[in-house]
Amino acid sequence: MRRALLTAAALLASAAAFSSSAQTAAPTLEPLWTISGFDSPESVLPTRGGYFVSNVGGEGDARDGDGWIALVGVGDGHAIARWVAGLDAPKGMALKDGKLYVSDITKLVVIDVARETIIARHDVPDSAFLNDVAVAPDGKVLVADSGKQRIYAFDGTAATPWLEDPLLRSINGLLPEKDRLVVSTMQGRLLAVDWKTKAITVLAEGLGNGDGLARLKDGTYIVSEWPGRLFHVRADGTHAVIADTRQQEQFWNDFLLVGDTLVVPNWKPGTLSAYRVRD
After folding, report:
1. 3-class SS at 6?
2. Tell me: the pLDDT tens digits for 239-251?
3. Structural domain of 96
């Protein structure tokens, strides 16, 4: 009887291990489409019938007026319209109450979506290189400053420092969740910031020049490294590379995940690519 119980326990343990392994298996990518015609695209957001794509239009810190936002249709052959121009080097974007908030080096630009017009340019004091933008649960617009290991919060009137910490050095991507803000950095870290205490937890390291991030249905994450890799990060912090296009010089920037469709701006070679994420 004892041997039988031990055997049963071993089988259960084996099954549990197999189940755990299956749940954390790295997903695969199925290419769907690629669109060309962009100029250093950095970030993508969904909009009715298509996507907004920020185009830096030159160097990431150049105040040259060459930056623009593209509107990409998905039902008309992926036509690209030069939707709003006159920015310098737009990167991260977030939508709130009919307005598109865009980081632009040291400014937060506000675009009225219905009017297709820039309605405000807010200076962000003591900022250096603003990057990703996101909306917190309390409605504040958060902006990552890659040059100052800092996150700013914009309340509709002014942007003020929300959190600064050495762990946020080279901060890039922002992903708001119910209880925490998940952050990627170009120091290769995936971090979680508690909304209430602002305590920082290191979820993973070794992710290179981290950029875009998204949470999958099983609670694991995918994180892009802009020079051309996509990582799958498990709950225990281990990770695997599920795409590597560095040899082809295809960058992976601040992507969008809707359902099982991953849409990625490729700063180089100036394309927008879509993939189906398969478990």
Report:
1. helix
2. 999 999 999 999 9
3. 27-278
